[in-house]
Amino acid sequence: MYNPYAVTLLALEAQRVVELRLVKLALGGADGQLEAHRMVSEKISAFIEASGTLMTGGSVDVVVARYREHVAANEKRLTAT
Question: DSSP class of residue 30?
């Protein structure tokens, strides 16, 4: 089974990152283009990491915890001045 509280937190935290990324993409320019490329490569890497975790016997809770780490790092990076 999985922890629904952790999944809910992931959803809420990810929504904030989506908001921050949309603002950066809307502003365009080199920063927006870099963010678009970064977003796609991060999603591919996260998928590969999650798949590997599950295929080697890891739990959904481990995957959710790792995704939350990625989301927190993105929020920190996107809110840095």
Answer: H
Tell me the whole-structure pTM to 2 decimals: 0.88
Which residue range is the domain that position 52 belongs to? Answer: 4-79
pLDDT average, residue stretch 58-63: 96
Better-scored residue on pLDDT, 64 or 1: 64
- Number of domains the chain is built from: 1
What is d(CA 2, CA 5) in angstroms, rounded to the nearest whole number? 9
